[in-house]
Amino acid sequence: MSETKAKTGGWRTNKWIRAAIPALLLHCSIGTVYCWSIFSEEIGEHIGFSKSATEWAFSFAIFFLGMSAAFLGNVVEKDIHKSSLIATICFAVGMAGTGFFIYYGGNHPHSYIALIGIYLSYGFIMGIGLGTGYLSPVKTLMLWFQDRKGLATGLAVAGFGAAKAIASPIMQALLDKLGDGGIYKMFWILSVVYFVMMFIGHLLLKKPEGWHEPQNKEEKQSIIEVIKTKPILNYVGIWLMFYINITCGLALISQEKMIVKCIGLAGIVGILSSVSAIFNAAGRLGFSAWADTMKDRNTIYKLIFVISIVLTGLVILTSGIKNAATITATSIDTKSMVLVILVLALLFMVNAGYGGGFSNVPTLLSDHYGMGSISAIHGITLSAWAFAGLSGNQMANWIVNKFGKALTVKMHGEEIIVNPTGYQYVLYATIALYIIALLLSLFFVKP
Fold first, then answer.
1. Would you tell me how many other CB atoms lie within 10 Å of the CB of residue 401?
2. pLDDT tens digits, one per residue of 276-330
3. H or E stretch including 177?
């Protein structure tokens, strides 16, 4: 479809209305899965379980996001309207179901029915909505924005990353207004809001008229055949470096709140969390738009890994987290400020690189394997997200619990329990993984 026709053919052939806006409506809704940390502790207290027990709901949501994308990629490929409707229904039902089981748990404290119900609702049902909703607009965007595929996919995936920054204050305001025990009502209200947003996105989403979807066996190859068009190590390299980038991102993001407290910034944790979310979204849009100007999109992954290695290495060499915690506990001077800035730079850039890894993978895959089966192959690749969702947080938690020891530090009149040594040891694991990812990007993924 020509650019002129897209501009003059009315709203039915407008790429912003038929691709960009519906993609944002879908991704800004499902991206709120990352808001779980805001209310997980309150949910645990309401139903009579620990925060660590409720945290598994988020891990299951990410796992089933990746697995549903892997197994339902062909459904997305054949019919984006069916897949976007599945996403809308599953996400809204999962959110409403989570509210119901929180309500049930409030009336039946310590009930495993409530906990398992939350796992099934937030983890499994919402997870299916997340996977199909994440995939549905991506190929459509790349078809409408053939000349700026990276910018287009970055725009939608940035919506997924920015959802936390947008929704967090709204959710907090709702919780404050609803009062004690009103958390289940918040889920019911939001299930209706997000259903409406996603249903509008579902109705608007449409592939360009000129796109001919492969239908017969001669035109349409299986995913295995598509992958085999390049050396198998090429795809293995893409999958592994995507998996490592997510694992490292989740490892640090899951400890971000405690690291920020550790370096003496407990009073502005909420603000810095929003700044991190903005970097996450900016990385999704910025790195993908930047990749459009490069001959080889894999170059962007090399840059992400190099930046991550350099900043992680600097915090390790300066013992930034440990020393910042020691210094800021007593006073604030130039040295402590430098260390604090260095640690924040690491957290912000890891967030940006984490987001950039997501937005560039569909365009990297399309450059290597073509557009014919991109939804299916992108879905298979998102299985890396599923496994990273289980390994990233849990790896960081294990390291923090295993190494160092919890310290009670008094900072500006407030007593905070932190483990600076444990957080530093997480960096040893992530820098080793980032180096492996860089080597994969250099030697496995060919231009």
1. 11
2. 888 998 999 999 999 989 989 999 999 999 999 999 999 999 988 877 766 554 5
3. helix 149-178
